């Protein structure tokens, strides 16, 4: 089985009027930060907030009436499940979704809200997929694979058709890789329309499935691996997706977690839009490997925005820590009335905000008549933080960061 540009164009015709034709916009600020010329395709504006609707719907629209009556089933960490549940409900097709027990609650809740029968089983995608295959055989359902299916890949490839219609002179498409469905579809479409365009795959360093297969190795996630890019945390790339994508890919890069976190924060703070970890992987690639993209016209697919709100809050807070805008200072002084008031006055007088104070009199490295304070402050930037530390030192309370 193979995938052609005609398959992708046929999928684009089927999908017209059923999904959003999302905007592809130039980002001046992200371009300045990364050194590349950045266009962003906002697939988080789909109804289920991810590009997965394209592939799922393209598959459903080609099922026969008998199949539609029996129903469909899939295994997914979230976005494919929501897409399949939503469009199956629209088309009157019964749907069962098997999700790993580690799936973020928001994705589980949203999938159930679309009317799907949700089953939680397994610690990751591969375990959930095995259980889904078992249920599929027992109930005579049709399995809709999230990536290893030519019809699904064709639907995903419509993203690239739209991007090159909007920005014909794009030079590089950095594409997240999980199971490989998106990059197989995007690479097929893009290379057919513009043969000299570069396709760069991006994987979480903890789940290098495509990279491992390229090197003839068995893919193995790191022990205890937990990535914020759970949407592309797949242990084994699809055999069909790999066969289609491998000849078309120019490079594959691995992403460490801090770059994924920073990319999520940048989308929120710069573009005022929400990206999940996997959805921000293409931007993370530009941050991690600036020399490979500098000066190039890059099309980034913001693949999805379904991130748990607590995780998003944590990522944004951690970014403040990285930027030295949220800092914990430890101060040791005499345990006497007015000490904390004096320190607070210095901090407040220099325009910083005190977030939290911890007071410790029992630490053995502190004098018996002394006290230790851990004060978390919020500042404008690294320079402002240094100004406050210098002011505290000048008042006789030299701080150290903790």
Strand order of the largest sheet: 5-4-3-6
**Helical content (DSSP H or I, runs of 4+):** 40-55%
CATH architecture type of the largest domain: 3-Layer(aba) Sandwich
Q: Count of helical segments?
A: 17
Mean model confidence by pLDDT = 92
| Major sheet size, sense and barrel closure | 4 strands, parallel
Number of domains: 3
Stretches where pLDDT is under 50 for at least 5 consecutive residues are none
What is the first-to-last residue Cα distance?
57 Å
Q: Rough shape?
A: elongated
What fraction of residues sit in β-strands? 15-25%
The helix/strand class is alpha/beta
What's the total count of β strands?
A: 14
Instruction: Report the top-level CATH class of the largest domain.
Output: Alpha Beta
């Amino acid at each position: 089985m193979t995938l052609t540009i005609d398959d992708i164009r046929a999928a684009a015709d089927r999908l017209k009027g059923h999904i959003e034709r999302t905007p592809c916009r130039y980002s001046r600020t992200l371009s300045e930060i990364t050194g590349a010329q950045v266009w962003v395709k906002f697939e988080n504006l789909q109804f289920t907030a991810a590009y997965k609707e394209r592939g799922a719907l393209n598959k459903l629209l080609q099922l026969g009436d008998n199949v539609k009556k029996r129903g469909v089933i899939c295994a997914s960490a979230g976005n494919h499940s929501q897409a399949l549940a939503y469009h199956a409900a629209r088309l009157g097709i019964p749907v069962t979704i098997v999700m790993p027990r580690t799936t973020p609650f928001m994705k589980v809740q949203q999938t159930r809200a679309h009317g799907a029968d949700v089953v939680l089983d397994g610690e990751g995608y591969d375990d959930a997929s095995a259980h889904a295959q078992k249920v599929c055989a027992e109930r005579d359902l049709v399995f809709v694979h999230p990536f290893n299916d030519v019809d699904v890949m064709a639907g995903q490839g419509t993203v690239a058709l739209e991007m090159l219609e909007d920005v014909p002179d794009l030079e590089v498409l950095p594409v997240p890789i999980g199971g490989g469905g998106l990059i197989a579809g995007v690479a097929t479409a893009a290379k057919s329309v513009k043969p000299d365009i570069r396709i760069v795959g991006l994987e979480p360093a903890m789940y290098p499935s495509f990279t491992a297969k390229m090197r003839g190795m068995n893919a193995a996630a790191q022990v205890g691996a937990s990535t914020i890019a759970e949407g592309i945390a797949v242990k084994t790339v699809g055999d069909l997706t790999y066969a289609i994508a491998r000849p078309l890919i120019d490079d594959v890069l691995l992403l460490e977690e801090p770059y994924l976190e920073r990319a999520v924060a940048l989308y929120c703070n710069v573009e005022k839009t929400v990206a999940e970890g996997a959805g921000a992987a293409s931007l993370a690639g530009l941050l991690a490997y600036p020399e490979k993209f500098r000066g190039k016209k890059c099309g980034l697919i913001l693949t999805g925005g379904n991130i748990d709100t607590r995780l998003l809050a944590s990522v944004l807070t951690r970014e403040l820590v990285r930027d030295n805008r949220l800092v914990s200072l430890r101060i040791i002084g005499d345990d006497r009335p007015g000490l904390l008031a004096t320190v607070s006055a210095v901090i407040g007088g220099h325009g910083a905000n005190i977030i939290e104070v911890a007071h410790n009199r029992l630490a053995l490295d502190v004098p018996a008549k002394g006290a230790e304070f851990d004060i978390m402050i919020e500042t404008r930037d690294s320079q402002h933080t240094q100004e406050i530390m210098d002011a505290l030192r000048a008042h006789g309370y030299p701080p150290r960061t903790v």
